[in-house]
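Troubleshooting: if your tokenizer reports a length mismatch, compare your output against this known-good record of 325 residues.
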Amino acid sequence: MSVKIGNINVGDFPLLLAPMEDVSDPPFRALCKEHGADVLYTEFISSEGLIRDAEKSTMKLDIYDFERPIGIQIFGYQIESMRLAAEICEKAQPEFIDINYGCPVKKVTKKGAGAGILKDIPKMVSMTKEIVNATKIPVTVKTRLGWDENSKYIVEVAERLQDVGIKALSIHGRTRKQMYKGDADWSLIGEVKNNPKMHIPIFGNGDVNTPEKAVEYRDRYGVDGVMIGRGAIGNPWIFNEIKHFIKTGTHLSPPSIADRVDACKQHLKHSIEWKGEVLGIAEMKRHYTNYFKGIPHFKDYRIKLINSDNAEEIQHLLDLVTKNF
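Known-good structure output:
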């Protein structure tokens, strides 16, 4: 049965690309879409930056037709700023507006934004209600199990967020205190999904890095889909690998060196087109290690790629990788 976020059909068991700061920009999203991601989200965008028309924030509103359905994710701690930011996002015409209640980074949480709001559930509910009322676009939420081990109120929180009108909920199976350490606990995600009071889609997030895990979490916890974050970094193929495994029970062949090089070249091309040559090349440097992780004797090439600021030289180096590995 197809899953719907509001009235938007997102497939039978949708695979969502998680919003990741400095990762899920348009160049990376393009690759993930090409390799099977069903729903994309932007990097998280500061509500304060949006309402002040800061270039770094407004640039993240760039979305393209081939990416749809796509959600724009916002974060902030002032209810009025978040409401105004939602109105700005609506003008960019995404399919969804997503609220970030999950970012664990200290500079975000110390102001009460991201996962920081998990210390103030009534405010979280009030803010969500204001955002839902400010836009005609479906509003979704991404959050965590709770602030720490003693405050995992996600089952109750999910009901309250649904009551004020959100259309889907993505849950990362860790507390804020855990950051990204330890194993994600999917049992509470399953409790939310199997709560008879819940009728919106519930997407699980955390440690989905193989097709087997996606199928296991679907079958054990009944989630409507999975959201993939770190498992897709340097590995946009994971979406089609999961789909193939669900359909056939067999594995696709892992990406070859040529596939990795091709993805890297595409990523670089999109990055330069989107941000210009200087910034596009600079921002690509963080990705070379990820695309070629686990390839023996790659270190010399990695250092050369990272040290180069010339697009033609990088293309030449990547061609040498195809030839020599």
